[in-house]
Amino acid sequence: MTQGDSDATLVGRVLGGDVDAFGGLVARHRERGMRFAAAMLGDAADAEEALQDAFVRAYRSLRTCREPARFDAWFMRILVNRCRTRGAMRGRAARLFVSDESAVERAAARPGGDPDWREEIDRALARLDAMQREAFVLKHVEGLEYEEMARLTGARVPALKMRVKRACDRLRVLLREVDDARIR
Amino acid sequence: MRESADDPLIARVAEELRRPVAVRPGFDERVMAAVRRPVDHLPVRAWTWLREPRTLAVSPLGGLAMAAGLAALLVVGTWRPGSETGPSGALGDAPAGAAQAASADAASLVTFVLLEPRAGAVTLAGDFNGWDAARTPLRRESSGIWTIDVPLRPGRYRYAFVVDGRRFVADPAAPRAVGDDFGQPTSVVTVGGAARAAGGLL
């Protein structure tokens, strides 16, 4: 069983040759990873591919995880990079396009959510600078402290604060009208 | 603790983005199947490839580099790590666990070279550094030649140069990756433990 084991224990078991123990890490960190990747990439299928890729890369370089108790932070760094790469590889036009199919899939996957509102958010996020989007999601969605964000992204705290501020300013401009109409 | 957004609009955006996003059924199984898939190690094929006589088509940039006595890829020695990361922070993608090959720590030092006189910065992104374009910067030498030595464990790696942080450039003197999953030009280097050679031009 892996359910009750700590991340450090699971990492130790994987490094000891118990490949199945990695499944415990996947199950534990899947939801947060998917949420982050979906916010970053704006497309569920892309997010899932980035997440799977991140898990595989994490497995293959697991012995470089110096603090197994902090597997979550280490894995997030890999996922952030996967999302950066995947986002950079796609054309900006593609990022701006949120397909109906994707929106429908997400609506089905998130009972209680508002698909139209989410789609507007995805469109607005897609129009942000990639680094601003990343900083915003890490700060306001993942709830990280700036110091942790700095460790994760390699950027300095003042730069991250500026990115978050600019992202918020831009989102206000892009979403104010939609939000007003929605809550009226 | 999650920092609350002062602006209600931003708070509503964050709340929506925090909703769980489901993965398709069977996600965990697909990850574990990918994890169990052996890494594509092709040292024998690399050695065979190097020994076979062949005609190679080289781009003007690659030809210029070779004319200058440069090889875009050179395996210059074996690097035995004292720690888990190499001098440039590059990592071989050797599988974790007991199945890890005993020779996995015998990394070869591979020199990557790109001629880009007009570039302000050149980095390397590849399978060996998680495609993180910020982790492996090249040094600018004279005449616009950019270079870096990267310790790589035996294996097959896809990579590309990243010029000025945004333009992906395949190595003009290395085989192009087949079935590239990024839609951008990428190259392949194969580092074989026995052959100690890469799939580049020597």
Notes on the structure:
The complex is a heterodimer of chains A (184) and B (202). With 184 residues, chain A is mainly α. Chain A has 2 domains: 1-113, Rna Polymerase Sigma Factor, Chain: A (Orthogonal Bundle), CATH 1.10.1740.10; 128-184, Arc Repressor Mutant, subunit A. In chain A, 76% of the residues lie in helices and 0% in strands. Chain A has helices spanning 7-15, 21-41, 44-60, 71-89, 92-96, 100-109, 115-126, 130-141, 146-153, 157-183. The longest helix of chain A is centred in the C-terminal third of the chain and has 27 residues, at 157-183. The radius of gyration of chain A is 17 Å and the shape is elongated. The N and C termini of chain A lie far apart (50 Å). The model of chain A is unreliable at 91-101 (pLDDT under 50). Chain B has helices at 8-17, 27-36, 43-51, 60-67; strands at residues 73-79, 107-115, 122-126, 139-140, 145-152, 155-163, 167-169, 187-191. Chain B contains 4 helices and 8 strands. In chain B, the strands form 2 sheets. Chain B has a 4-stranded antiparallel β-sheet with strand order 1-2-5-4. Chain B is of the alpha+beta class. Helix content of chain B is 18%, strand content 24%. Chain B has a domain at 40-92 and 106-191: Sandwich (Immunoglobulin-like), CATH 2.60.40.10.
The CATH class designation of the domain at 40-92 and 106-191 in chain B is Mainly Beta
Q: How many discrete structural domains of chain A?
A: 2
Q: Uncertain spans of chain B, ≥5 residues at pLDDT below 50?
A: 41-60, 66-71, 79-104, 194-202
Structural class of chain B: alpha+beta
CATH-level-2 architecture of the largest domain in chain A: Orthogonal Bundle
Second rung of CATH, namely the architecture of the domain at 40-92 and 106-191 in chain B: Sandwich
Order of helices and strands of chain B: HHHHEEEEEEEE
Oligomer: heterodimer
Structural class by secondary-structure content of chain A: mainly alpha
Number of strands of chain B: 8
Tell me the β content of chain A: under 5%
Could you give the distance between the termini of chain B? Answer: 55 Å
The 3D shape of chain A can be described as: elongated
List the secondary-structure elements of chain A in sequence, H or E.
HHHHHHHHHH
Distance between the termini of chain A: 50 Å
| Beta content of chain B | 15-25%
Instruction: Please state the CA-atom Rg of chain A, rounded to the nearest Å.
Output: 17 Å
Write the CATH homologous superfamily of the largest domain in chain A: RNA polymerase sigma factor, region 2, helix turn helix motif
